[in-house]
Specification:
By secondary structure, the chain is of the alpha+beta class. Helix content is about 50%, strand content about 15%. Among the domains are: about 160 residues, Hypothetical protein af1432; about 140 residues, no CATH class; about 80 residues, ACT domain (Alpha-Beta Plaits, 2-Layer Sandwich), CATH 3.30.70. Strands 1, 2, 3, 4, 5 and 6 form a 6-stranded mixed sheet that branches.
């Protein structure tokens, strides 16, 4: 039955889409029963009607995109629900169709897959970065429930990358960078090499178009001679295997552009040093034969020392298995050889997706499926704490595949990223072990906790009851799990302790003013909280305890002993975070400006006076530490501040006017000029300027310093 013709005949303008749909249906007919094909074609009809009238940037009808996504999954032999979800994946986001409609017509499982892939455009976020991170977080959590979510998303991203040429240049680069940072590593982490290679090459093409074109041209130029060499060596391998009575396939491997580019960047080498590396893949019948073939190729050509990797005995983190060796070929040409079974080759190309390709072969799928489940369980633990941005960064760290393998005291193998320490190992065993870790042994000898682990070491963790994570561990741990667990512990600890501390600080400051928390009363406290934009007392106490708000100033605000409303509403009082309702002035001795490290000094009559931390006059305040206040600048300050600079200039006519003009060109007003000293060939001038922040001041000083008649320029300080 020609399902494609049946469906296309029902839709206006369908003939334009005939090729894509026909190809999809033909692919699906090769492995799905007719009743499932009927559901998929119904989904196509639903999607085509929902997207009717919509076009992509390329000018094609929008429905061509979900059909292409479904085609990619069909070639991986995914099940009918995943194909249906692929066809419908943009309907909720871009049309009037709802998840309820999809659930009603195609089942709740398909609806969950579609929801997992959909972005969160309906929610208002503070920034594009937060929206992207939250969308990614939602997709990853849906993936934990059903791995097919990420398979649909990867296929979606692949087709978008193929049609990225129609996008504006800036958006093109942003999407390409995201693909290389997130989606290609996820495909690699799941062992889906076919998607990883395409995503990397397309990401490279759009992120560095000129480099891509140069590499592509150079490779095409050398392909002719390469083919001859590859053919000759392949025949040698096949002949040597036949002499030993071993059957197997020898395939000359085509290196993809991004791997060549990355190798050039990492090793800082020329293109000619990389393109002459020839790749071969030998497919054998079983594991024993793989090791036999290894001996044969080592007999033909000498192996390079230190370049042999046995990923069959110890698979990579994504389940990949193969023997890797590099040989000195004819005329010293390096030959890269991978030896694996047919099953390993299938898993290398399809990874976790192979679960749907060969469901009957349960035993062969156990390894990649188990590894994927372990990774997803780790993701689930990571997402339970922190913001969406933190989660995104943690997943990025977790995606890099460079691994070492160490042993537990019982002999179990534990994979960790390169550079991982004994603390990372402790958290990899269990979060509770990491939190209570006090010491560690490597190969039975005590080592510092920050010791980096190496392949093959045996690691033992020593714990103690009541021990807690050390914040300093964050400076050397490498795994996302360890970093997240330490941050979460410190956050919980800090929150409870800071509330108690903030309450005590505020009560003490109120008592200094002849009041107390009890005297303030609930009505005044509620009004103050509303004015400060806080939900409850606990939020206020926590801010005070963490130093985000100042206890003496908050006490005056609550007690009503601050300045009148005109002062309270002045813009100046808001320039320093946490000083709402107080007079803030800036010391004339050191002229602090936004970006400087500053402290506040509580004075009688002048409110809070802000000094730079390097101010020489601070030594006068050492005897009254209770009046020191930790302060920070607010963000995005629009005001200008006084600042003093000093210049040494050559004694030439018009120099003062030249310097003044340069300062004015930098967008600054000069309030005062003073000649501090004059010598035979040089003058010392002091300028009092109006600047916006340290960056503005640095621009002015740089411009003045570059003048031919200026010898030196510096910022004055007491």
């Amino acid at each position: 039955m020609d399902y494609a013709a049946t469906i296309l005949s029902k839709l206006p303008g369908a003939s334009k889409r005939d090729h894509g749909v026909r190809r999809l249906i033909e692919t699906l007919q090769s492995y799905l029963p007719e009743e499932q094909l009927a559901v998929i074609t119904a989904a196509y009809e639903f999607g085509a009607n929902a997207h009717f009238g919509q076009t992509r940037k390329t000018g094609e009808a929008y429905i061509t995109h979900p059909v292409a996504v479904a085609q990619e999954l069909a070639e991986m032999h995914l099940d009918a629900q995943a194909i249906t979800a692929a066809i419908l994946h943009d309907t909720v986001e871009d049309t009037s169709a709802s998840l309820d409609e999809i659930a009603e017509q195609f089942g709740s499982e398909v609806a969950l897959l579609v929801d997992g892939v959909s972005k969160l455009d309906q929610i208002q976020f503070r920034s594009h970065a937060e929206a992207q991170a939250e969308s990614f977080r939602k997709m990853m959590l849906a993936m934990i429930e059903d791995i097919r979510v990420i398979l649909v998303k990867l296929a979606d991203r692949l087709h978008n990358m193929r049609t990225l040429g129609a996008m504006p240049a800036e958006k093109k680069k942003r999407i390409a960078r995201e693909t290389l940072d997130i989606y290609a590593p996820i495909a690699n982490r799941l062992g889906i090499n076919r998607l990883k290679v395409q995503l990397e090459d397309l990401g490279f093409k759009h992120l560095h178009p000129f480099r891509y074109r140069v590499l592509e041209a150079a490779l095409k130029k050398s392909q002719g001679s390469q083919k001859q060499i590859v053919k000759k060596i392949s025949e040698e391998f096949s002949s040597a295997m036949a002499d030993e009575g071993i059957e197997g396939d020898v395939i000359g491997r085509q290196k993809h552009l991004y791997s060549i580019y990355r190798k050039m960047a990492e090793k800082r080498c020329q293109l000619s040093d990389v393109v002459d590396v020839y790749g071969f893949r030998i497919i054998a019948d079983d594991v024993n034969t793989c090791y036999q073939v290894l001996g044969i190729v080592h007999g033909l050509y000498k192996p390079m020392p230190g370049r042999f990797k046995d990923y069959i005995a110890i698979p990579r983190i994504n389940g990949y298995q193969s023997l890797h060796t590099t040989l000195f070929g004819p005329k010293g040409l390096p030959l890269e050889v991978q030896i694996r079974t047919r099953e390993m080759d299938r898993l290398a190309e399809s990874g976790v997706a192979s679960h749907w390709i060969y469901k009957a072969d349960e035993k062969s799928n156990a390894s990649p499926q188990q590894r994927t489940r372990e990774w997803l369980a780790n993701l689930e633990e990571l997402q339970q704490s922190g913001t969406s941005e933190e989660f995104l960064e943690s997943v990025k760290v977790d995606l890099f595949p460079d691994r070492i393998y160490v042993f537990t005291p019982k002999g179990d193998i534990m994979p960790l990223p390169k550079g991982a320490t004994t603390v990372d190992f402790a958290y990899a065993v269990h979060t509770g072990i990491g939190n209570r870790c006090v010491a560690a042994k490597v190969n039975r000898g005590l080592v510092p906790l920050r010791t980096e682990l190496r392949n093959g070491q045996t690691v033992e963790v020593i714990t103690a009851k009541g021990a807690k994570p050390n914040p300093n561990w964050l400076t050397f741990v490498r795994t996302a799990k360890a970093r997240t667990a330490i941050r979460q512990h410190m956050k919980n600890l800090r929150s409870s302790e800071s509330v108690d501390l903030g309450k005590r600080l505020l009560d003490r400051s109120l008592k200094d003013l002849g009041s107390s928390l009890r005297k303030i009363g609930k009505v005044r406290m509620a009004a103050a909280l509303e004015e400060l934009g806080l939900d409850n007392n606990t939020a206020l106490f926590e801010q005070l305890g963490l130093g985000e708000r100042l206890a003496p100033l908050t006490a005056r605000f609550l007690a009503g002993t601050g300045e009148d409303s005109d002062v309270r509403e002045s813009t100046a009082s808001l320039i320093i975070a946490g000083t709402e309702g107080m007079v803030v002035s800036y010391a004339k001795c050191c002229f602090p400006i936004p970006g400087d490290d500053v402290m506040g000094y509580l004075t009688a009559g002048r409110g809070v006076v802000i000094h730079r931390n390097q101010c020489g006059n601070l030594s006068n305040f050492r005897k009254q530490p209770e009046k020191w206040i930790s302060v920070t600048w607010e963000k995005d300050i629009e005001l200008e501040f006084a600042c003093q600079i000093q210049t040494d200039t050559r004694n030439k006519p018009g120099v003062l006017a030249e310097v003044a003009a340069t300062i004015a060109d930098c967008g600054s007003n000069i309030e005062q000029v003073e000649v501090l000293g004059r010598h035979e060939d040089c003058s010392v001038l002091s300028f009092l300027l109006q600047v916006k922040d340290r960056a503005h001041l640095a621009k002015i000083m740089r411009s003045v310093r570059n003048m031919k008649n200026v010898i030196r320029v510096s910022r004055e300080s007491a």
